[in-house]
UniProtKB/TrEMBL annotation:
GO molecular function terms listed in the Swiss-Prot or TrEMBL record: ATP binding; phosphoribosylaminoimidazolesuccinocarboxamide synthase activity
Lipid biosynthesis keyword on record: no
Gene name of the encoded protein: purC
Keyword Nucleotide-binding (UniProt): yes
GO biological process: 'de novo' IMP biosynthetic process; cobalamin biosynthetic process
Gene Ontology CC annotations of this record: cytosol
Protein name: Phosphoribosylaminoimidazole-succinocarboxamide synthase
Length: 238
């Protein structure tokens, strides 16, 4: 089934979303942009959009095969994918398997601690407020999602954690932390947005070398090379 790209729906930090001639479908365009610190640091890296698009497709297909409902339908081109049009919940689900980043800054804990059980956190998607941490009661009270939807998001997030920790460990990688976003599709909670190296942290299992967007945040260099290395280890078609 072919679809026709129409007007831009919105443009984020590294993706542009387009309407199509099918109201139930959208096109995601993964750009080469990279941003950090609420857009204060922005740079473009050649081929990054293509890598993220194909990496996201690879992960979404793995999750769908394991029983996780996702919005992903198929790749359209090097930088574009066709997805279902969800009514997105304005929250991010974050799981932390190893301490680093904002968790260490907020709680004063040492970086690199194995977290058992993993830490689960909700954040409100609001750039103007710098994505504040929230909990289930904020979400339900302000009508961002129902308690049933909240529980389903948590259930899927922990199931995804088990699937991806195993997948990455098999490639010599530690899944440190990541964020997921969900939406409603015809009354069902469905995984939406993306899973790329822009939204997770991965370390080499032996050296703990960072192979994710922290290379950009911390000025370590080799951003695209790190993304390509992760894709190579997983066998992601690029």
């Amino acid at each position: 089934m072919s679809v026709e790209k129409q007007s831009e729906l919105y443009s984020g930090k590294a993706k542009t979303v387009y309407k199509t001639d099918d109201p139930a479908r959208l096109i995601l365009h993964f750009r080469d942009d990279t941003s950090a610190f609420d857009g204060q640091k922005i740079e473009q890296f050649s081929r990054k959009g293509e890598i993220n698009n194909k990496f996201n497709a690879f992960i979404m297909e793995k999750l769908a095969a394991a029983g996780i409902p996702t919005h992903f339908e198929r790749l359209l081109s090097a930088q574009e994918s066709l997805v279902k049009h969800l009514e997105m919940f304005p929250v991010e689900c974050v799981v932390r398997n190893i301490s680093t980043g904002s968790l260490c800054r907020r709680l004063g804990v040492q970086e690199g601690l194995d977290l058992e059980p993993p830490v689960f956190e909700f954040f409100l998607k609001n750039d103007a407020l710098h994505d504040p941490m929230i909990n289930e009661y904020h979400i339900c009270t302000f009508g961002w999602a129902s308690m049933e939807q909240v529980e389903r998001m948590k259930e899927y997030t922990f199931k995804i954690n088990d699937i991806l920790k195993s997948l990455f460990l098999g490639a010599g990688l530690l899944l440190v932390d990541y964020k997921l976003e969900f939406g409603d599709y015809q009354g069902q909670v469905v995984l939406g947005d993306e899973f790329t190296l822009d939204g997770c942290r991965l370390w080499d299992v032996e050296t703990r070398e960072k192979l994710d967007k922290d290379r950009f945040r911390q000025g370590l260099g080799g951003v695209v090379e790190a993304y390509e290395e992760v894709a190579r280890r997983l066998g992601t078609p690029l």
